[in-house]
Design brief:
- This protein is α+β, with helices and mostly antiparallel strands and 730 residues long.
- Strands 6, 7, 8, 9, 11, 12, 14, 15, 19 and 20 form a ten-stranded antiparallel sheet that branches. An eight-stranded parallel β-barrel has the order 21-22-23-26-27-28-29-30, surrounded by four helices.
- Strand 29, helix 11 and strand 30 form a beta-alpha-beta unit.
- Helix 7 packs parallel to helix 8, helix 10 packs parallel to helix 11 and helix 11 runs parallel beside helix 12.
- The two termini are 40 Å apart.
- The structure holds alpha-D-galactopyranose (GLA).
- Alpha-D-galactopyranose (GLA) binds next to loops.
């Protein structure tokens, strides 16, 4: 049993393989957070609680003589609001009587078999008997607002999932202005917050900041999780590094507006609150209605950031990603975007496919520009009829030709959008998010369809299910190329417009659930101008996501490094593209581009016709190399050996088979040196006593020697040289 309950003391211990999470409900019904950290079993941690009469921290009315009890200083599982806790609130409500208070008291608990689901939202699932659920029920007796806190305990995976459900059990409507998914109070210690900021073409750059006395906030109000911030944060002790030290991860399984807030309090405790952003959020709960918050994935380790990442990588790969492609090797694809942009013909596509096939590629992906009036990004989105004039044939016969070369066929779509210059917009202008009487803001000359409306979702479902039903399409790249503005739905009354942004996300999820459910044989890859919606919510539907529109191998070292903190390697779409690189103008060796792109779901994004004979030969080899290493890269443990953000000489990373039978070392020199000092790395995840052969040279080393003594690389010269070698246990 991973959930241990001391009924008399109303003490709940959630035990995983290496951690314990503990909470208790006191005699007044306040639910305290007691402990989260390395396993302490079910030992009652109330002895660690600290009470003091803290000036200007008020006391609940009915126990006001208990001057050392204040919600302002109590570590809690979830806060109410307006009742004397001045730290970050989990909740903001207004009740039928106009008051802004919620005072939650413990009502009871339930232990449920397996993993709870969240209606309409993606959430982790258990693979048979992996998870137990604890539900803590609370109630605000004055308004009738009920709060259910769910805890999913994945004992072997060291993962605790949380979500909150708010239900109006009273007689009057209640408005939610903020409804966080979880609050995590760390009563003691100093913590840094590591979060992942970025921009288009440079996503998920880790940034580490001490949690201040004041609120440190990251998030997105762009309608999607965004390039600029990622719904994942780590609280790490100041001394925590890649291999040692305490750290907590908190990841939202959500793809829309979010907010992560951290604060160090006056008594030096730290609070982390995360959930849907409260900007322009207002959700009305009629009597009897419930609001489900998105899930949060929590994990703790004292084994450093590397260990935390491996925990999230494994969990997302096995308990979030779904479908036929969850555990299967992926095909190597070639995408025509950087080869042709909008400027292609059916013949050109066939020639790309034919030549790519000769190199060993398995699938052609036809990117943007195959439909409607779409020869630039100024028009056509929404008109999903095939441009047969441009292709020179029907889509069916194009696919047939591609298949005749022995290639599978994939296609790009951007269903959530509409160009003002499109028949769809001319027919249904009200289907776009826009505010009556105002000219809507455009992004990439396009508007966003109002997926909060059922008829819009229904239309998109019939349009894209038809496309997939009528054609042999094996892969879909689902793009989303702008941030939301004018978030106003013609389907909602004025007082419910604060629901539109979240209802949009629910509409996207609904559409994806239907399409991915109906076409399980299709591999879906998410995309939003690259990695603008790279989150666990999307990974529930798409087992891979285009990591960034920046395909420059040297920039990708950082992007993939940052992404690896929370996300599995095989979920990162990454391709070898042409040089000079289209985004940076940089020229890197093909070998280096291959090494970097291989650390992801691999493919090409170039015109094979423009390749030299030597490059073609090298690509043939590269694809074979990828196929040789794919299992290790996809299912092995991943180790960051350098800090790609700060180590300016070289970047190194490694994969090790879970059973220690093999390892793959990758190094890229980002700034070659004259009279260079040695590149020396310590391998990880090997068996110390086992012997390993380096497959290229045949040299033999002990696991201990490679891990503790390290491995010295040959001198690498030239522009951005790359190095890859594999060690096999003998
Ligand atoms: C986005 C994607 C690109 C490409 C273009 C097509 O920017 O990230 O890979 O598909 O759209 O318009």
């Amino acid at each position: 049993m991973s959930i241990a309950i001391d009924k008399e003391n109303r003490l709940f211990s959630l035990n995983t393989a290496h951690t314990t999470y503990q909470l208790f409900a006191d005699d007044n019904g306040f639910v305290h957070h007691l402990y989260y950290g390395r396993s302490i079993g079910s030992f009652d941690m109330r002895f660690t609680e600290y009470y003091s009469d803290c000036g200007f921290s008020p006391n609940p009315g009915h126990i006001h003589m208990q001057r050392d009890f204040s919600l302002d200083t109590r570590p809690q599982e979830y806060t109410g609001c307006g009742i004397g806790d001045y730290r970050i609130s989990s909740l903001s409500v207004s009740n039928g009587d106009g008051s802004y208070s919620a005072d939650f008291r413990y009502v009871g608990f339930a232990v449920l078999d397996g993993k709870y689901a969240i209606p309409g939202l993606p959430a982790s699932y258990d693979n048979g008997g992996e998870c137990e659920t604890l539900r803590i029920d609370l109630k605000d007796h004055a308004s009738g607002l009920e709060l259910a806190l769910y805890y999913g305990v994945f004992a072997e995976k060291d993962m605790i999932t949380r979500c909150a459900v708010l239900r109006n059990g009273g007689g009057n409507p209640i408005k939610l202005y903020k409804a966080a998914s979880a609050c995590l109070d760390l009563p003691f210690g100093k913590w840094d917050m590591i979060h992942f900021q970025g921009r288009h073409c440079m996503e998920r750059m880790p940034e580490r900041t001490p949690v201040p006395h004041g609120v440190l906030t990251v998030g997105s109000d762009r309608g999607t999780s965004s390039h600029q911030h990622n719904p994942f944060a780590i609280l790490a002790a100041p001394e925590t590094c890649e291999e040692f030290g305490q750290c907590y991860g908190a990841m939202l399984v959500y793809s829309g507006n979010f907010k992560i807030e951290a604060e160090c309090s006056q008594l030096q405790s730290t609070r982390l609150v995360l959930g849907i952003s409260d900007q322009r959020f207002c959700w009305t709960l009629e009597p009897g209605e419930a609001f489900h918050t998105p899930e949060v994935l929590l994990s703790f380790t004292d084994g450093g950031l590397g260990s935390l990442s491996r925990c999230y990588q494994e969990f997302l790969a096995e308990n979030i990603c779904r479908g036929a492609y969850r555990d299967t090797p992926r095909q190597v694809l070639i995408n025509n975007w950087e080869a042709t942009y909008f400027n292609f013909t059916g013949e050109k596509l066939c020639s790309i496919a034919r030549q790519a096939k000769e190199l060993g590629v398995d699938m052609l992906v036809l990117d943007d520009g195959w439909f409607g009036k779409r020869d630039s990004d100024y028009s056509g989105l929404g008109d999903w009829d095939v441009n047969e004039k441009k292709l020179g044939c029907t889509l069916t016969s194009l696919i047939q030709k591609i298949q005749d070369y022995g290639m599978d066929f994939g296609i790009w779509v951007e269903p959530e959008m509409v160009s003002p210059d499109s028949d769809l917009y001319r027919t249904h202008p009200d289907w776009a998010l826009s505010i009556p009487g105002r000219t809507p803001v455009q992004g990439r000359s396009q508007l966003v369809l109002d997926l909060s409306r059922e008829e819009v979702v229904g239309y998109l479902y019939s349009c894209f299910s038809n496309l997939l039903r009528c054609h042999e399409i094996r892969y879909v790249k689902w793009d989303m190329n702008r941030s939301l503005t004018d978030v106003f739905s013609r389907g909602l009354p004025p007082e419910r417009q604060g629901e539109a942004a979240h209802r949009y996300v629910l509409g996207v999820y609904n559409l994806l659930e239907r399409l991915t459910g109906e076409f399980p044989e299709v591999l879906f890859e998410g995309c939003s101008g690259g990695g603008g919606r790279f989150d666990a919510g999307m990974l529930y539907y798409f087992p891979q996501i285009w990591c960034s529109d920046d395909t420059d191998a040297i920039e990708r070292l950082k992007i993939q490094y940052g992404t690896s903190f929370g996300y599995p390697i095989r979920t990162m779409g990454s391709h070898v593209s042409a040089v000079p690189n289209h985004q940076t103008g940089r020229t890197t060796p093909l070998h280096t581009r291959g090494i970097v792109a291989m650390s992801g779901s691999f493919g090409y994004e170039l015109d094979p016709q423009k390749l030299s004979r030597e490059d073609k030969e090298e690509i043939r080899e590269q694809i074979l190399t990828f196929r040789r290493h794919q299992d290790l890269i996809f299912y092995g443990d991943y180790y960051r050996l350098t800090n790609a953000m700060t180590d300016d000489y070289f970047t190194a990373w490694q994969f090790a088979a879970k059973d220690g039978s093999a390892a793959l070392l990758n190094v890229v020199v980002v700034a070659p040196k004259a009279n260079p000092y040695p590149i020396h790395v310590h391998l990880k995840g090997l068996q110390p006593e086992a012997m390993y052969r380096e497959t290229e040279s045949g040299s033999v080393y002990s696991g201990a020697a490679l891990m503790y003594g390290g491995y010295t690389l040959p001198i690498l010269t030239g522009d951005y040289p790359g190095f890859q070698c594999r060690f096999e246990r003998i």
